[in-house]
Amino acid sequence: MLNLTSLKAAGLLAGALALMTLAGCSDDAQKPASSAASGDLLSQIKARGTVTIAMEGTWSPWTYHDTKGELTGFDVAVGKKIAEKIGVKPQFIEGKWDGLLAGLEAGRYDLMINGVGITPERAAAYNFSEPYAYDRVAVIVRGDRNDIKTMEDLKGKSTANTISSTYAATAEKYGAKVTGVDDLNQTFELLLAGRIDATLNSEVTFVDYKKAHPDADIKIAVFTPDIGQVGIPLKKSPQTDSLRKLVNDTIEELRKSGELGKLSVQFFGLDITSQK
Predict the structure, then answer these.
(1) Residue 177, exposed/middle/buried by CB under 10 A (0-12, 13-18, 19+)?
(2) Which of 157, 170, 176, 273 is positioned for an S-S bond with 197, CB 3.0–4.6 A?
């Protein structure tokens, strides 16, 4: 049987434990809910001081290397503006198209800025920004070809594009057989060598290629009926919502100030930043 002294001691001990428990609860209640904040991608970017931006680096005038070997292009300029808005430095990471979206989904990149066309399938898999450019797609053939005058004429023809691109999907939609390539240069090499019948690509890419290769015997046979929307994909997660909002705000500010259109004219020779 416990004596009075023992009971008092037990009571004091119980009271002390209760106070400690309450103090612990109080401390936890006063701590900020940091778990959500730490998972927010924009917060992570600001903390590390850099935003990682994936692109090919071989698709002029979107992303390419100039005569000095420096990475440049319309998308590089847009990426720098977004980094400036965040208040960090841009870190451009180059790779082949097929691996860029996969790397974005795996969290290796924060953004992909590479003339990415917005499709229902991609919109279901990624968080896209609002369109920052509009893509008029051309069917490009050699100068001596006159048998492709409509999109339906692609049926049974051979084309070349990166397999997961919207251009390849459009070519297949009209019955063409698509050969997979790594980059734009390989596409035009196959076309000029007569190893494919046509290729689908952006009108501005055709204009830029002809500017760099004025003797290239290629022409636009026909345009696709729809104008594509170009956006910036992010990983599909609530953690990217604040970054997506900042990207949209940046695009809107650049559009309203006229700077986005000026960048387009600088790199493309025409303004493709508004739907006409």
Answers:
(1) middle
(2) 157
Residue 44 burial (CB count, 10 A): 15
Whether domain 136-228 has CATH 3.30.465.10: no
CA angle 145, 150, 153 (to 5 degrees): 70
8 Å CB contact between 229 and 276:
no
Q: pTM, whole model, 2 decimals?
A: 0.71
Domain spans in the chain, listed from the N-terminal domain onward: 38-132+232-268, 136-228
Burial class of residue 68 in the structure, from the number of CB atoms within 10 Å of its CB (0-12 exposed, 13-18 middle, 19+ buried) = exposed
Task: Report the candidate in 96, 82, 10 with the shortest Cα–Cα distance to residue 46.
Answer: 82
CA angle in degrees (0–180, nearest 5) for 160-77-272: 60
Fold match flag (38-132+232-268 vs 136-228)? yes
Dump pLDDT digits (tens) for 73-130: 999 999 999 999 999 999 999 999 889 999 999 999 999 999 999 999 999 999 999 9
